[in-house]
Amino acid sequence: MPRAPGRRDFLGSASGLASALLLPSLGCGDGPRSGSQAGARQRPKARARPSTGLRTAPSASLAEQAAPGSEQLPDGLDPVNFTIYTRTPLTLETLRSRLPSAALTETGRLFVRNNLPMPHPQIVADADAWRIELAGVQGGRTFTLRELKELGQASVVAVLQCSGNGRRFFPHRPSGSPWGVGAAGCVRWTGVPVSTVLDAVGGALPTARFLTATGGDPLPKLPPGITPEMLLVERSIPLEKGLADALLAWELNDEPIPLSHGGPLRLIVPGYYGVNNVKYVKTLACTRDQSGAKIQETSYRLRPLGEPGATSQPSMWRMAVKSWIGEPGADDAPVIAGPQTIRGVAFSGERGVKEVEVSIDGGRSWLSARLDAEDLGVNAWRPFSLDVELGVGAHELISRATDTQGERQPEQRPENERGYGNNSWRDMALRLEVFANSAEALAARERRLAAQPPPERSVAAELSPQAARGREVFLSKADPTCGNCHTLADAGAGMKIGPDLDHLGAPVAKVQNAVTNGVGVMQGYRDRLSPEQIEAVAHYVAEAARK
């Protein structure tokens, strides 16, 4: 009897695809759930068009993806809507004031999370020629996107949220992007159900328990010390979930998925954190085990503080109940005393929302909010609103959601090493100052601006002694050396696997924490370098980036 591929079998085959290592980009609940088809609508089959075949394309140049330091962003994205954490790879958080409390999020205001430089734009220009391989099934084969469209279409509205959304509120300052509430959005995806695709190839092999997806970012030759398992962005979800409501999607908000959001083809897992929604999906396999890639095996695990990741810890699958308020007053927008309408959004993966309560006094008392707009399905968010009177002074606006299974949003965050899964209503609070009139609001804004320190513009003419020692560690003493993955002009390093340190702008403490404990695919150096060496590297990176 044929057996489903094990995780090592699949890693071996995936790492050899097209004579290059292929990976996806990401973004991640706490256990397998059965899912639901609610919110999906069937659409007629697409009409076939002549195939031109897939053309292999290199990675996009840095200039094509957007030159660091410029205001240009890919896909026409407007920088005014985002906090830009990194440009290579692209990491954008939607500003709270730019994330409307509407049923659907505009594509141009949807956060972006990539772990690697994006592929060449040619893959979306020739979208119908994109190929995806099916493995671990009765009749394995490869489909073009055009052929997938012939199988039929369905749409689902679902929240897309990064596992680390809310990370900035953790007191231990975990490594990774310091997301507030803006690493989330609610959008419509259109594609073919995974169950339909598997039916077309005879179904999964009988021993399969997981659905494992690999994306299609081509990597350069791997530097010494970096193995495919350390870098391969490959996620596994329970096969039951994949059959219930997962999609292979080619449209986002009724338009072709742009490159920055995973086009031409993305795996969508409604109700699960974004990391499971694999971009540029190139291989879909029904496997006996979860992927052995680091991103599945030890990363994106809800692990206790100070502990390394392990398969025994919950994987970032289903999103817990969560809500926040977006207006009035986000990002210091002026609020005038008198009648105001509080607006926000609430959701719970695979369950939907039953009710939302709002507090205007920091959680001491609660009022029932209205659930606005049409219910677009259990995996969509629900906008809510409440009309209130706000007096002059400081206010703390808080929302608290309860889902259809009675789970209520908690006050406390789930403390964990990587800052995942934060759904604390206390952390999501919107704190604002209400003024008697617009003149007072403007004067207060001017006082805030005057009190802010000027931006740091000092240029290090030469490295400090500590940073000079750090340069030596950066170049030769770290194993693998930092230049194997990062770009830093002073060190002559130009790798694109990790963030571009010349433009990251990270403070010393953040670099020190990342080097000590690890972040993303980078393993921590606490057992390979002394604390003094790590501190020296952190100072070097900070000083060299200012030169």
Explain how this protein is built.
This protein has 547 residues and is of the alpha+beta class. It folds into three domains: 255 residues, Alpha-Beta Complex (Sulfite Oxidase, Chain A, domain 2), CATH 3.90.420.10; 130 residues, Immunoglobulin-like, CATH 2.60.40; 82 residues, Orthogonal Bundle (Cytochrome Bc1 Complex, Chain D, domain 2). It is built from 13 helices and 29 strands. The strands form eight sheets. Strands 2, 8, 9, 13, 14 and 15 form a six-stranded antiparallel beta sheet that branches. Strands 7-6-16-10-12 form a five-stranded mixed beta sheet. The N and C termini lie far apart (63 Å).
In short:
With 547 residues, the protein is α+β, with helices and mostly antiparallel strands. It folds into three domains: 7-43 and 80-297, Oxidoreductase, molybdopterin-binding domain (Sulfite Oxidase, Chain A, domain 2), CATH 3.90.420.10; 322-451, Immunoglobulin-like, CATH 2.60.40.650; 465-546, Cytochrome Bc1 Complex, Chain D, domain 2 (Orthogonal Bundle), CATH 1.10.760.10. The chain is globular and about 70 Å long.
How is the secondary structure organized here?
Layout lengths: L6 H8 L7 E2 L16 E4 L18 H4 L16 E6 L2 E5 L17 E2 L8 H4 L5 E5 L5 E4 H5 L3 E9 L22 E10 H7 L9 E6 L1 E2 L9 H4 L2 E5 H7 L1 E6 L2 E2 L9 E3 L12 E7 L6 H4 L24 E6 L7 E2 L1 E10 L5 E7 L7 E2 L1 E2 L10 E9 L2 E11 L26 E6 L2 H14 L13 H13 L9 E2 L4 E2 L6 H4 L3 H10 E2 L2 E2 L7 H16 L1
Parallel strand pairs: 6-16, 18-25
Antiparallel strand pairs: 1-11, 2-8, 3-4, 4-5, 6-7, 8-9, 9-13, 10-12, 10-16, 13-14, 13-15, 17-19, 19-23, 20-21, 20-24, 22-23, 24-25, 26-27, 28-29
Helix pairs in contact: 10-13, 12-13
